[in-house]
Amino acid sequence: MQGCACGGGERGTQVPRTKSDNGRIVPVIAFFNQKGGTAKTTSTLNVGAALAERGHRTLAIDLDPQASLTMALGVDVLTLEASSYDLLVDDTVEITDVARKTTIEKFSVVPSHPDLAAAELQLLNTLERERALAHKLKPAALAALDYEFVLIDSPPSLNVVSINILVAADYLIIPIEPHPLSVMVLPKLFEMVGRVQRLNPKLQIIGFLPTKVHGTSRLAADMIDDLRTGFPDLLILPSIPLSVRGAEAVAAYTSILAYSPKSPIAEAYRQVARKVEKEIRP
Ligand SMILES: Nc1ncnc2c1ncn2[C@@H]1O[C@H](COP(=O)(O)OP(=O)(O)OP(=O)(O)O)[C@@H](O)[C@H]1O
Ligand SMILES: [Mg+2]
């Protein structure tokens, strides 16, 4: 594996490919990569929109203080009364208190707020601070709500909020963009996942989601080769092509599927949603 520092062969940090064997009724799927700008937010929004288009009631939880997902859905963060920050730090706040419908049918969001950046410090003094989110996403609590899928948009960091996400999630999808550094950050990510699996043994990695893939660039093909060689047990989801439609859809406060339904990038996100559904519910 040329130039790859991924260390994917290390036993103990690598996670087997997922199959639906944890019996969860409402799967919690986090889009996770500590590297910035890998299209976590774009993918949470558009895989969510694709699941919703397939008729599944889907909830996306924005757990990034940048609140990009929240703003992309046209929610005004400055006038928010409650957000994912409250969900994390306030024992009395439940999902139903913070979830709201979006303009996309069957797709709801728990908005984020810049205050979430302070959650780190606030959680430091809390008992079981890694489990704050998991408590709110208990299977019984989710089963009582009207969602079939819960997606999480993660921040580009490995902090207490990120650990909360790993402890609460059933599945991870790792959006990754073709860049020489993308594969190099993976050992740190897998080390963290390996450690958290002691707290959350049900956590499984669905696989990698190559994003911003330029059809004629060698970079993407090389990265996918490196991922196949370094992580043979993990799935590589259908690639998302490089496209300006994502940013244009954000400007229109909607998904790429609604903004440009027949574009190759919309179709790619539909394929990813179908694959995810099949992996989780074979
Ligand atoms: N397929 C794509 N083609 C071109 N640009 C894209 C694509 N997907 C996302 N982008 C752009 O890349 C940038 C980063 O995307 P996004 O915000 O989804 O990444 P992120 O991983 O959530 O970033 P962060 O780590 O800051 O949260 C944005 O400007 C977005 O519009
Ligand atoms: Mg983001």
Description:
The protein is of the alpha/beta class and 282 residues long. The protein has one domain: 3-Layer(aba) Sandwich (Rossmann fold). Helix content is 40%, strand content 12%. The protein has 14 helices and eight strands. It has helices at 40-53, 68-72, 84-89, 95-98, 116-124, 132-136, 139-143, 160-168, 180-184, 186-196, 218-230, 245-251, 256-259, 264-280, and strands spanning 28-31, 58-62, 100-101, 107-110, 149-153, 171-176, 204-210, 235-236. It has an eight-stranded mixed sheet, sandwiched between helices. β7 (204-210), α11 (218-230) and β8 (235-236) form a beta-alpha-beta unit. α1 crosses α14. It is globular and about 50 Å long. The model is unreliable at 1-24 (pLDDT under 50). Adenosine-5'-triphosphate binds next to α1 and α12. Adenosine-5'-triphosphate binds at residues 36-42, 64, 66, 68, 156, 211-212, 240, 242-243, 246-247, 265.
Uncertain regions spanning at least 5 consecutive residues = 1-24
Give the SSE order as H and E letters. EHEHHHEEHHHEHEHHEHEHHH
CATH homologous superfamily (4th level) name: P-loop containing nucleotide triphosphate hydrolases
Average pLDDT rating = 90
CATH architecture: 3-Layer(aba) Sandwich
Q: What's the β-strand tally?
A: 8
Biggest sheet descriptor: 8 strands, mixed
Bound molecules: adenosine-5'-triphosphate, magnesium ion
Helix-and-strand structural type: alpha/beta
Spatial order of the strands forming the largest sheet: 3-4-2-5-1-6-7-8
User: What top-tier CATH class fits best?
Assistant: Alpha Beta
Whole-number tally of structural domains: 1
**CATH third-level topology:** Rossmann fold
